UniProtKB/TrEMBL annotation:
Residues 251-262 have a biased composition (Polar residues). Residues 239-250 have a biased composition (Basic and acidic residues). This is Kinetochore protein Nuf2 N-terminal domain-containing protein. The keyword Nucleotide-binding does not apply. Residues 4-136 form the Kinetochore protein Nuf2 N-terminal domain. Its main location: nucleus. One of its GO terms (cellular component) is Ndc80 complex. Residues 353-401 form a coiled coil. It comes from Meganyctiphanes norvegica. Belongs to the NUF2 family. It comes from the Eukaryota. GO terms for biological process: cell division. Residues 239-266 are annotated as: Disordered. Keywords: Cell cycle, Cell division, Centromere, Chromosome, Coiled coil, Mitosis.
Amino acid sequence: MSEYSDEDFIHLFNTLFEIRVTVQDMRALKADFVQKIYYLFLKDFGANLESINQFPFDVSESVSQHPELYREAVRIMTLAKVIRLFFKMIYNEESFQPADLFYPKPKRTRRFFKMVVDFYFGANNHIEDFTEIEEKVSLKIDGRKKMLEGIEKLKTKIGDSRQQNSKYQIQEDEMQKRISSSQHELSEAHVIKQGLKNQLDKLKMENLNVANSINDGKIHIIEAKERIENLAGQVVQESEKRDIEEREHQLSTYRDTSNQKQSRMDELKKSMKSINTANNLMKDNLLSLMKEIKEAKEKESEYSNFIDQIEREKSTNLEEIEDILMKLQQFQEQLLSRQERISQINLAWSIKKESLKEEVNQNKMTLEEIRRSQSEDDIAAQDLEAEQVEMEKEMVAIQEQIKHFDHFVATKYQAILQAMETQNNDLEGLLTDLTISVNRRN
């Protein structure tokens, strides 16, 4: 524990609490002054002091007749309780009593004032580190918030893209069905066309045969006419007459058959014309479908480009997350380094403590020598011994204060490490959600 003079206390209290403290105040250390210093310290520390000035409602009738006396006593007792709790939490010091406020002793009061001032100096030495850590954590939180907003936007884009892809997929399936149906109809029309073509070829052959038969019949008729002319003057026999009639009947039959086949050929030509018209219509439909397929392919290409862009953005976000994790790891390493510095400080204090112990032992030896050699200085030696005892007490107090101040700092660092661990867990959960989202999209 550092040694402070009255001037140091005056300067520190004037600066910290913005009040006017005089040398006479520090020398007298009256109860009202000591209570005021502790009250201002707790107020600056951020303690809730409303209960100190509150008057409880459940007081007895006799006490309520003198409320000001009761209020003052309760205020001082409550202040003592809060101050005692502070020293216990920070320094594990439980020797502070209400009497230190009602009837403060200079030596004890200065020792407690030293502890208060040491707390201010210790907190001030680490305030920059804590402020820097809080700023870094705040920046990480803001960056994580922005990253989460970007991820939500990406999720929305991916959802919209999936819906659009589903719509395009449905349209493509419908087009494929229409193409398959058209191809089936085209195949059936081709079969019908081939059958009609075969029938037409068959009819052409039959027509050719009929034409040949007609020509043969005509030749027979001509020959018969010639024979009739040659036999004009002769008697026509019954058999030749029947032969002529039979040939004329066959000629008539051939003519009827030829007319029927000609009609059938005209019908087939009309059917071929209708089939050609249907084929042309189906070709137009196929061209329209091919155009729609081409447009769908172009949209699919645009969608693929959009998906690639999302993948690139996702990769960029993953790189940013890795960078944040790396920075967090560096931050943890810095915390570990600072903890090592604290350990080094503790080691330095331990060395200093050992040095003080050696100095005390040396003083003991010197005191013993003085006792043996100078019996006339017993009173002075007793004073030295009293100072030595007080110094040993202060040494113990120093050790306890260092121990609990280190515990206080370590607790703060532990809280920061826990906050960082929570943030790391949140980032890991975010990476898991991203991985699940990407797997679902694939």
